[in-house]
Amino acid sequence: NAGVMQNPRHLVRRRGQEARLRCSPMKGHSHVYWYRQLPEEGLKFMVYLQKENIIDESGMPKERFSAEFPKEGPSILRIQQVVRGDSAAYFCASSLLDSYTEAFFGQGTRLTVV
Amino acid sequence: EDKVVQSPLSLVVHEGDTVTLNCSYEVTNFRSLLWYKQEKKAPTFLFMLTSSGIEKKSGRLSSILDKKELFSILNITATQTGDSAVYLCAVEETSGSRLTFGEGTQLTVNP
Questions:
Q1: Phi and psi at residue A84, in whole multiples of 5°?
Q2: Strand partners, B65
Q3: Confidence category of residue A1, pLDDT binned at 50, 70, 90
Q4: Is B56 on the interface with A (CB under 8 A)?
């Protein structure tokens, strides 16, 4: 059973481009959480999704950011018109239940905006 | 707003030393407190604590929670260079939606 898979591991985008970050949860996990880690800061919650539903997006910036977790396929975090301040490590975690008991984090995607 | 504060932010020790990492929190609807180890990649789970006074132990690592005073400690005995990492403390709310993380303690163990 592979762990939580995130790709790409590293992503470089120019200002104004779109970034798409993918997260494949562990097999059987239907709960996905996205976090952002800015340089020299702790992880900050962004969004919590279950299959086809956004449960809590209170940590998502109001503009340019969106997330989805379709019935089939990975969860996607999409950032439109990226700016330098979006440069960060983006981690996702997945769990079997609606709690962090037995939740596992992926290796993260490091986004650099140039 | 929920808040988690870790101390110290940075710690340098020699192999064999014992370290204590601190985590205090203010959370409206507490469900659990979790400790993670992060070595420049995925945070890896160490402990989940839900009840006061019950020590969780795994090898040289142990942790305990005090829900009255709202803090937890993580102890590492006989430290090794492989323990060098950032140790993250996080608190889970009853909704199960989010973890609120502290800034982490950067531990460096020198040979």
A1: -55, -35
A2: B72
A3: low
A4: no
**C-alpha closest to that of A79 among A4, A1, A19, A8:** A19
What is the pLDDT confidence band of residue A54, given thresholds at 50, 70 and 90? very high
Hey, is the C-beta of B46 within 8 angstroms of any chain A C-beta? no
Contact between B97 and B37 under an 8 Å Cβ cutoff? The reply is no
Nearby residues of A107 by Cβ (< 8 Å), 6 or more positions away: A4, A6, A9, B41, B42
Among A42-51, A61-70, A96-105, the range scoring the smallest mean pLDDT is A96-105
Q: Give the mean model confidence (pLDDT) for residues B86-100.
A: 90
User: Number of A:B CB contacts under 8 A?
Assistant: 62
Mean pLDDT confidence for A32-50 = 92
Report the relative pairing of strands B105-110 and B10-14 from DSSP bridges. parallel
Question: What is the rounded CA–CA span in Å between residue B93 and residue B44?
Answer: 20
Chain B, nearest residue to A103 by Cα: B45
- Alpha carbon of residue A77 to chain centroid: 5
Binary contact (B92, A99; C-beta < 8 A) = yes
Tens digits of residue pLDDT in B30-86? 999 999 999 878 899 999 999 898 899 999 999 999 999 999 999 999 999 999 999
CA atoms of B60 and B45, how far apart (whole Å): 15
Residue in B closest to A49 by C-alpha: B97
- Nearest CB to A108 within list B34, B42, B104: B42
Residues of chain A contacting B3 with CB distance shorter than 8 Å: none
